[in-house]
Design a protein that fits this description.
Oligomer: single chain
Structural class: alpha+beta
CATH architecture of the largest domain: Alpha-Beta Barrel
CATH superfamily of the largest domain: D-amino Acid Aminotransferase, subunit A, domain 2
Distance between the termini: 42 Å
Strand content: 25-35%
Order of helices and strands: EEHHEEEEEEE
Radius of gyration: 17 Å
CATH class of the largest domain: Alpha Beta
CATH topology of the largest domain: D-amino Acid Aminotransferase, Chain A, domain 2
Number of strands: 9
Number of helices: 2
Shape: globular
Number of domains: 2
Strand order of the largest sheet: 2-1-3-4
Length: 168
């Protein structure tokens, strides 16, 4: 079976010339590059990000890093817009398969999400859950949990059991 064409992806917050959790993002890209056998140079990536930050001093941006299989890196950015206070999501009708490796690596391959198309204009996104009943992520974003005032994005995309949110 032929594997789909895709690039590895990281989205990093840039604020006043500093990247938020930069080492974590680089480590995740490195691990994904090893998993998918992509060429990866951490030094080259850091150099590209530093140059981008220097050109965008004072900006608040979502910086998108794409890594091609041959090791080429693309860096681009866009202004971060405030989240709509009226953000609403709908729960997926069926579970997502936790066996799919593309759920554990950020890539441009969106096939895993194709079955979860938004057809309702009243909602901005779909909240996904797996076959074990754990909430995992949105189709276009992470789930963030606030615990004792601190914000967390669960590492293994298993936030909490769905039954805690759904009334019978």
């Amino acid at each position: 079976m032929e594997r789909p064409a895709y690039k590895l992806l990281e989205s990093i917050k840039l604020s006043d010339g500093e990247y938020y959790l930069l080492n974590d993002h680089i480590d995740r890209m490195k691990q994904s590059a090893e998993y998918f056998d992509y060429r990866f140079s951490e030094l080259h990536l850091r150099d590209r990000l530093q140059k981008y930050a220097e050109l965008n001093q004072g900006a608040l941006q979502k910086v998108r890093v794409l890594l091609q299989e041959n090791g080429e890196i693309e860096v681009s950015g866009q202004p971060i817009k405030p989240l709509d206070p009226e953000f609403t999501a709908i729960l997926a009708e069926a579970p997502i398969s936790s066996a799919n490796p593309f759920l554990f690596h950020k890539t441009t391959n969106r096939d895993v999400y194709e079955g979860f198309q938004m057809n309702n204009p009243d909602f901005q996104d779909i909240l996904l859950w797996n076959e074990e009943g754990f909430i995992t992520e949105f189709t276009n974003g992470n789930v963030v949990v606030k615990i004792n005032g601190d914000l967390y994005t669960p590492r293994w995309k298993q936030v909490c059991l769905l039954e805690h949110f759904v009334k019978n």
